[in-house]
Structure prediction request, 390 residues.
Amino acid sequence: MNPSSREKYAARLTELEALHHELSAGKRPGDGAVVVGLLLEAVGDVLRRKSALGISPAAVIAPLSAISEPSLKAWADGVEVKDLAARLKRAASHAVEAAIPDSPEDGATIAQWAVQDLQARDRLESALVALEAMARPDATRLLTRLRDAVTAVDQSCRGTVVSLTALNGARRVEASLLDGEFRGAAWWYSERTGIDDDQLVQVLGGEVKGSMPAEFKTANAEVTRKRGRPVRFDDLFRLDLGLATAAEREAIRLQADGDPELKLALAAMDAAESAITEETKDEVLAPATVPAFAVERASAPEIVEERSEFKVLLFRSKKNVQVVVQPHRLDRFAAAAVFRSDEPDRACPSSPGDMGLHFDLGAPERLAGLVARVVVKLTDGRTHASEVRL
Prediction:
């Protein structure tokens, strides 16, 4: 058993207590649906792994009594089951790319994206298990509606499990933590996780020698299909911030060899960087203010990270969630970017504001269960990354 994975779910017990307190206190009534979703996921995560965690179900179920019927309905109405199908299919596609990557580093990154999409399906399953444990008429009605929709998604996506075998190492760890009564239903973690299946995608792709089961020969064309990776604006933005991995930098360089426009863009970026360096080499930056940017937000932000050079704040309101990167020293601050876990290769939009650089992450009801990765680049070339659960 992977200790780090077990500790991740053990930490849900502490998180569960905090969410229960927050919901009971009613400090953020407008965000009730978000807190309800997080609480349901935390309760279900623990209930489905009670044997591995050594806990009593009764103690975990108790916080569910704090959920009101209107908040529960608001959460259920915001669940986008159709988006789940897209994420499962994307996980399968990423799993294939991770198994036959351009470089080992590239493969590890893509595999992580695939696992994040599988976790989205697992978190919804946990929420449904918690919903069933509530044993209330309103919860039962919502459970029936959501379970029917999720079953349809599973039926349409279950065939992708062949591709998911490329993630068997991570899937086996997750499956081993689930109680037996829940393991079989969690096909995204437990189905086709045998050792013999581990290299199935590589065999289909011709990367390693092995026998190809007859029922999988029709998948060979899809696995071996050449996948182009066009360079987009977000890729160039990550490159300019210094956030691109070595694999991403190499992929951009190789594509630029055959793309005159891309080569010209890279040359312009290099020229601009050199001009900025030359222009500011003897310049001492003085403190400056940034233009005001009106936004509805909570009165007390959450402090995600604070360093001598900058502070990262999280604001929640009824309408949106924002991350604010607030420079303490403008002469040390170079740039910042925020990436949501559901779109890890696309930076969130930003605007200068009254407290610093504001990143709009979207409406709170659409962010339940997601994680935001905040990356700050300093003028000395160093980067600092932090994560916040949304």
